[in-house]
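Allow me, if you will, to draw on your knowledge of protein folds for a short while. A protein sequence and the structure tokens that stand for its backbone fold form the material at issue. I would ask you to consider whether the tokens describe a fold that such a sequence might reasonably adopt. Thank you for your consideration; the sequence and its tokens are set out here:
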Amino acid sequence: MDLALLNPAQFDLPTIWFVLVAFFFVGYFVLDGFDFGVGMSLPLLGRDDTDRRVMINTIGPVWDLNETWVIVAGAVLFAAFPEWYASLFSGFYLPLLLILLALIARGVSFEYRHQRKHPQWTQAFDRMIIIGSVLPAFLWGLIFANVVRGLPMDAGHNVTASLLDLITPYAVLGGVTLTLLCLVHGAVFIALKTDGDIRGRARRLAAVAGVPAAVAAVAFLAWTLNLETFSGQPLPALMAAVGAALAMVAALVANAVGREGLAFGAMAATVGLAVVTLFLSLFPHVLPSTSGEGGLTIVNASSTDYTLTVMFWVALVVTPLVIGYQIWTYWVFRRRLTRDHIPAGAH
């Protein structure tokens, strides 16, 4: 066997790492997406504190593990595409800061809401969970919509857009779409992980929210494929968008007939394929410019081949271990939860 064939430098390293960045962001939105949805569902499904405890406990063992995917995605982005990373964080400083603060508030609330047996204490932290779920979902959708549409940049690839430049109809639709998809995703997950009355209510919420989510998703993906600044891969992006639409239909049908496992898998595919559509709409660009400066591509935004090669071998070893641990964790905590699992008088 020719060992030279195992040298990643023989391949297109920037393309490999673009795919890996997309993979980690897909994993993040699929996994933390239903976490967001569970948080959004608290005021919609939780008739009392016990209901809310059941809902929070469905994600209690996994929410922090799900959230690590965005940390890994950010680290990979920083190491593989430092120019892309720098332009993103300079152009989206305020939205990313708000996401960070919201995630911190949500994480703190999970740990502290039960520390005092006082309704106002619990309600305050529940509000933080709701805000910490809705705000990141909306802002991530807004950010990715702007990345695909492109932003004004100078010759040094510095984003020159103001905050108001980020709030366009297309970007707002992106934020609304991701928020609604997460809500449906979370409702389906609650139905999968609970039993009794709350399970039925979660299925009804998924059915009701599924219609506007599907409409918003179709409108957003169709708009994406028809952007004047579209610079990606038309046919693969179209195929991914159609796949997302079909998966959404399958999820709603499976939810209607009580097949929560299939519904959850189809919703995961919906969210994943929607994110894949956005990345395919970019490639080979990573941040298009709307000011005639050329923007960033996988070539002029990437690190050196040596850095990408070393990272390739590290990722080859570490990524399967992370995925394996995640699968094991979900298997261990696979049972359904009911109100009976919440001790009487617990907060």
Summary: The CA atoms of residues 61 and 333 lie 7 Å apart. The radius of gyration is 21 Å. Confidence is low (pLDDT under 50) at residues 1-7.
